[in-house]
Amino acid sequence: MTLKSIELFGFKSFGKKSSLSFTNPITCVVGPNGSGKSNIVEAMRFVLGEQSMKSLRGKGGSDLIFKGSKMISSSNRASVNITFDNSKKIFSFTNSGIGISLDYDEIVIGREVFADGANKYSINGTEVRLKDVIDLLASVNIGSSGHHIISQGEADRVLNASNKDRRSMIEDALGLKIYQYRIKESERKLDKTIINMKEVTALRREIAPHLNFLKKQVEKVERARTMREDLRGLYKTYFSREFTYISNEGSRIANMRRQLDEKALYLDNKISDLEKLKDNNVTESETLKIIKEKELKLQEVRSKRDDVARSLGRIEGIIEGIERHFAKIPEVKEHIIKESEWKSLVEDLELKIDEAIQQEDISIVINILRNIKSKLGEFTHSVTEEKSDMSVLTENAEYLEMQKAKEEIILSISNIKEEEKNIVDEINNLKEKEKESQSVFRDNERALYDVLRDKNEVVSSIHGLSFEEERLLSIKNAFEMELAEGGVLIGREVVDYARMKVEGEIVRSTQEDLRRKIERIKIKLEDSGSGNAGEIMKEYDDTMERDVFLGRELEDLNKSIDSLRLLIQELKETLDKEFKTGVEKINKQFQEFFALMFGGGSAFLSITMEHKKPKKSDEKVSADDEGDEESEGEEENSDLGFERGIEINVTLPQKKVKDLHMLSGGERSLTSIALLFAVSQVNPPPFLVLDETDAALDEANSRKYGNMLENLSKYSQLIVVTHNRETMSRAQVLYGVTMSAEGASKLLSIRLEDATSYAK
């Protein structure tokens, strides 16, 4: 047994949780009209993925939810779970074309619907898509056509269906829907692949002009690369020589600058010293002023000396008068003689003093003064001797006072003479020093002139060196700019070139020639437009890689198209073969069941070919598609104008009726039941639901119907909704559905064996 149970909660009239177990080959569901027994069948349709609300007798999802009653509140959702036995691992996913078995002993499929109409599907508690549910059920021959569920009033649906729909039902019943599904999937993949191929082709066409343009640019880049190699060699020579020249010139100029700065500093110090000496000489030239001051002072001293000498003469005259007054006549004579000697002495002294004044030589003046001193000593001695004779005068106060004043004047004269002598010495020393100073000043003037001349030469050399420094700085700036530009053109390796020194003299004219060659190559590089060579090469590589990728993609798509077309062809051939074989098997069983039902006659299915209505997408083909896909379209749609169908042919015994629409209601029911049972015999579904399909049968045909149920139950589980006693008698379990006092459907179950033994 495959179907194990079904559980309903809040579905239509089942307000409470209700469960039905299917443990016997035939299970009957009975109950009065309106009790909700057909809701069980609809619950099976619902949980197995039915999307037509009309088939579920509703307009929307909310119509499937229990609305509530006086005693039971309404539900906000309806859920149905159906459980299958998978101990033999017969369930699998077949979407990929390769069956993937589910390693579960039980498969529980659930579906919930909410008040807003949203649905949720689950397999063993895991939320899945509707597509997954349909795929899983297809693996056990439960298709979407519902051939395994025949509801009330739909027993003759297979008879009323068109040949095309009837073919779909037969394919579904035969388990061939998986081929149809794979064909449709393959065709969708083929269409998508063709669209992708067109897109890839369009992309290749789109990038082709750009790729050709990039190829030309790459050729320019290659030529530019060759020029860069030449430029690299020129740069290596130019930068190494230029670096050597700048280094050598920098060192030379730096040494000259250092020497000139040292010499200038030395000369500045020397000039400073000489200027200090000059300032000193200028200061010492003021000695002349001092000499003049000393001479003026000397004149003052001499004038003072003369005044004192005149005072001395007056005092001496007074003393002589006093002496004459006290002396006798002979004494007066002697005194006169002595006075004449005194006058002679005074005159002699005055001459000596005048001579000393006129002499510049201090030694002569000293000798004269010594003579004057000697004369005075002699005269004093003589006077002293005379005084002894004149003891009378010593007692005279006036005489004594005059003598004292005389001595003081003589002492003053001596001091004045000493001062005069000192002044004369100072004047002579200053004059000598002035002579020496004038000689040194003249020598310093000459030395300062020579040093200033040397300093001017040094300053001139420094100015000339500044011009050389500016020239070298200009060369260095140009070198750095060229170095930066070279780094952009050929890379950072130019820095290594700029650190290489070469031996020998660097000729500037040779460097200028190299520079001109470099400039010419740079102009050519600029004209070649290869300044962004890296971006061009990258873009070319990316575009080329994309083109190669698209080429491989196009090749893979072509292979995929060929593979899909081959697969579709194989699937169609397999489907056609399986369909024809299945129809032959159905015809064999159909004939047997039909003859059993009608006591003879014949019935069979025939395959028809009908004109297919063209789709709008087939009528409108773009001009590009007509040109590119004309041959492919003819090949692919060779059977586009026709499609297969199934036609039912019956011949009743003892009647000439062959058209289905001429059959009575009972005959149509028997014919549809015979066909459904025949299909079930060929490819039995795991279960078959029959909802009052025996309502139109009489008692005799009901027994035949019951016999066929027992025969069919050997291959499929049967869930039969019926009012027919004969049909009930063939079941092992009866489920009674009644509308309880609570306003919801209620289930009652009974096993007929237990009921029979209980009745006995």
TrEMBL record:
Identify one Pfam family in the record.
SMC_N
User: What PANTHER family would the database entry show?
Assistant: STRUCTURAL MAINTENANCE OF CHROMOSOMES PROTEIN 3
- Which parts of this chain are annotated as the region Disordered? 614-640
Family annotation (InterPro entries): P-loop_NTPase, RecF/RecN/SMC_N
**What residue stretches are annotated with the RecF/RecN/SMC N-terminal domain?**
3-745
Please list every transmembrane segment annotated in the UniProt record, as residue ranges: none
Where in this chain does the entry annotate a coiled-coil region?
274-311, 402-437, 554-581
Protein name in UniProt: Chromosome partition protein smc
Q: Give the record's keywords alphabetically.
A: Coiled coil
* Compositionally biased tracts (Acidic residues): 624-638
Record the organism: Candidatus Nomurabacteria bacterium GW2011_GWE1_35_16
